Amino acid sequence: MLLDRYDVKVYQSGLKFVLFVAVKNILKCEVTFPHSLDKGLYTKINTPRVLNADDIETLKVEMQRIIGLDAKISKKVIAKNEAYNYYLKLKVKEKAGNINNQNNKTVTLYELMGVYNYFMGDMPDSTGMLNKFELTFLGDNDLILSFPLDKTGVIPEYIHQEKIFASFKEYDAWIKSLGIEYVNDLNNIVSQNKIKEFIKKNDIMMDNQIYKIAEKVKDSGRKIILLGGPSSSGKTTSARKLALYLSTFGLNPIYLGLDDYFKDEGEKPLDHKGEPDYESLEAIDLELFNKQLNDMLDGKEVSIPTYNFALGEKEYKQRLVKLNYNDIILIEGLHCLNEELTKHIPRDEKYKVYLSPFTPLNIDRHNHLSTIDVRLLRRFIRDSWARNFPPENTLKIWEKVRDGEVKHIFPHTGEADAVLNTAFIYEVGVLKVYGEPLLYNIPPESKYYNEARRLIDFLQMFFPIPSEYVSPDNVLREFIGGSYFEEG
After folding, report:
1. Gap between the Cα atoms of 9 and 293, Å rounded
2. 5-146 is classed CATH 3.30.980.10
3. pLDDT tens sequence across 316-361
4. Which of 165, 227, 307, 430 shows a CA-CA span of 20 to 30 A to 130?
5. What is the pLDDT of residue 76?
């Protein structure tokens, strides 16, 4: 079976429904899908009984049975108030709340073998096509649901990243301690006019993460600090804030942006379509970067370039740098976790930080908030005002950006000494104010119209949040404008 990117979403939704039914049949309990993890979907089996590997194998056999039946998945369009009362009766309050907050007069439920549920997005017509999946047991009643992600139909191997997993769990425990788990809980805070206080709490939590990493960097005594992560993770602002925290310890961080070392336009490598490949390590002028890095470490003065994206070339604006006793080098960019970038420097002389927005907030217990969608919203909002790049163009290149991340960034996350979670629980409400009008501007004849409508439907789940409460040093300012760290 071949998959395209849209089919992957359908395939995932169908497998979630099959697993949901299998858990009900075998374990007589509930299952939740809190978030994605590595290349799979993190799944919790909510039963007081401690499960073992045999239980998971039994669950897998039941899923295979349901798939082998090629059972029909039916779409049921019902009145909004009927769906609201249905979930209220089941005491699934977050789904009832989400339905109540929607503007639609009807709601689509899906039915499989007599079981009804609401899943965002489309479903396959039947279970027969869902014949490729894997369950990886993590213990503690947790597992990973894996499935093919591309046209090869190959199920990627799940590689557990404990630091990333721990970051999710830490953030999840924090918001649950505040009584927040789902979008409806956040919407209640907005409707009760308590969002200003919550934003401040969330900001303190974020700043505390950065402070702890600054402490670890100081204690490590290392001279080279590298911050890496996928597009729109907030690398620039996080690096600048980390530099401020490090300065409170008497250190003097020298900031280097890896993007400033891009090769000039005519020198960039080409992808398989013959187009410039901005995502690969080879797009960086590694010879110049490493020469300047070595010169700085040797105590020499160097002239740091600034990349002019409009002209497609490096410029030298008399930024002269020479390391002194308390200076450290703070490097930020897509490839900073890749050991090939700085392979001439011993690993134990470098401190690496991986950052990405891992939000533990969920739409409901069976529909998680996609980190990829959050980064996409950040990206096209910033592209629109900062680079005069319309959302349609951002959507066009997003697949290439995502492919680059899979090839060049995610394989190196295990290199990280620390993980910085740059998600804000409230951020989609803020991004909605900026992003929704841009998405409505994409016309029906556009190739990206359906993706724009999907994102609009997603944003409608959130109440708008004014940006006036977002501080100038907040990571979100990197994407909506007004950042303390903006140059000029």
Report:
1. 43
2. yes
3. 988 999 999 889 999 999 999 999 999 999 999 999 999 999 988 9
4. 165
5. 92
- Mean pLDDT, to the nearest integer, of 170-194? 94
Q: Between 2.60.40.640, 3.40.50.150, 3.40.50.920, 3.40.50.300, what CATH number should domain 162-480 receive?
A: 3.40.50.300
Provide the residue type at 362 as one letter: N
Does the pTM surpass 0.85? The reply is: yes
Residue 488's pLDDT is what?
A: 46
